[in-house]
Amino acid sequence: MTTNDLTPTPGQTIGPFFGYFNAAENVHLPFENGQHLVPVSDDRAIQLTGTVYDGAGEPIPDAMLEIWQADEHGNIPNQDGSLIRDPFAFTGWGRATTDNVGTYRFTTVEPGRTEDGKPPFIHIVVFARGILNKLHTRAYIPDADGLENDPTIVALGDRAETVIAKRDGKRLILDIHIQGDNETVFFQFPGMTYPKP
What we know:
This protein is mainly β. The protein has 1 helix and 11 strands; from the N terminus they run ββββββββαβββ. Strands 3, 6, 9, 10 and 11 form a 5-stranded mixed β-sheet that branches.
């Protein structure tokens, strides 16, 4: 007699499923200090923060975000060790979850420009319940040289404000709206596919 296993798989249930742990390899998802790309005490440290909202304008308390960025000189790190927080090695990658009011926080450095004439930005990847594929957006550095002439920013028109962070001292603030009137601009890259509505 055959028994049918009707246990829902992740694609059929509401996630996210971020509590992964592998004791043999000491891998956690999320992992300890993943939100600190540099120590808080580092003189270069800034905070990238904001709130993630759903389509109804409600904060999402269980989203996970990753950031990828250049260092303060515009160098893109390529060394191994993102899961190891070595204060002497900037990996340019971090992972954080939102708190119970939907706020995320990263301690990092303000990135430098990677190309002449291109404004610096921090690449953000959003994972959340109800999203079958991760979402990609950016936090452009406000008041950066070249921002007003950047082809991407120009093409976005009025919607560019959804990807330009606001500065508050040593904090960069970018709220992320998954849907709705204030929806953040999300980017599609070659090879990415999304289900049709």
